């Protein structure tokens, strides 16, 4: 699977479905599109037709998801979250979660759900995203994990009633 990140572009989530339909007509391998704060993330089963990215007339980067399939570096996951690359962050954190136990496992599940909520948000599914955040907030977690203040993150989610995590 490949992801293409088109940078320095601002789109609204209500454009997502029509844009995805148009891209699927251009390239049958495209199966998902997620709109971040300043980028668009296009997911493809195979080779991505660069015409799709070139339509934006912006810079872009192609990432092979297989390169992340065994990544267990927590700080890579945080960096991906900070850059709004929640789908990949979810993959990295899930790799760590598989080998964890107890409260550490639950803390990672909390972070994975926050990533999942942001992926739903990027797809324009705000109600689903809010439901996922509600589920995450019910999880008992550590107060701190590898230098990340989980208590503060939890409080931000409660106070803001929303996700969009920046600068963890």
Amount of helix: 40-55%
The first-to-last residue Cα distance is: 27 Å
Note the beta-strand portion.
15-25%
So what's the overall shape? globular
Q: How many extended strands?
A: 6
Query: What is the ordering of alpha helices and beta strands?
Result: EHEEHEHHHHEEH
Helix/strand class = alpha+beta
* Strands side by side in the biggest sheet: 2-3-1-4
In CATH, the topology of the largest domain is named Hyaluronidase domain-like
Which stretches are low in confidence, meaning pLDDT under 50 for 5 or more residues running? none
Radius of gyration: 16 Å
**Describe the biggest sheet?**
4 strands, antiparallel
CATH H-tier superfamily of the largest domain: TTHA0068-like
CATH class type of the largest domain: Mainly Alpha
Average per-residue pLDDT, rounded, comes to 87
What's the number of helices?
A: 7
Using the 3D structure, state the CATH architecture of the largest domain: Orthogonal Bundle
How many domains is the backbone divided into? 2
């Amino acid at each position: 699977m490949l992801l293409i990140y088109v940078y320095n572009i601002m789109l609204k989530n209500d454009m997502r479905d029509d844009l995805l339909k148009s891209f699927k007509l251009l390239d049958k391998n495209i199966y998902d599109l997620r709109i971040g704060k300043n980028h668009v993330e296009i997911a493809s089963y195979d080779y991505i037709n660069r015409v799709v990215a070139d339509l934006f007339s912006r810079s872009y980067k192609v990432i092979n998801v297989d390169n992340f399939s065994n990544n267990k570096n927590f700080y890579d996951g945080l960096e991906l979250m900070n850059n709004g690359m929640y789908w990949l962050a979810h993959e990295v954190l899930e790799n760590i979660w598989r080998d964890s136990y107890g409260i550490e496992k639950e803390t990672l599940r909390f972070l994975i759900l926050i990533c999942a909520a942001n992926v739903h948000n990027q797809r324009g599914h705000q109600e689903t995203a809010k439901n996922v955040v509600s589920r995450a907030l019910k999880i008992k977690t550590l107060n701190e994990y590898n230098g990340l203040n989980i208590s503060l993150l939890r409080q931000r989610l409660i106070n803001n009633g929303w996700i969009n995590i920046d600068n963890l």
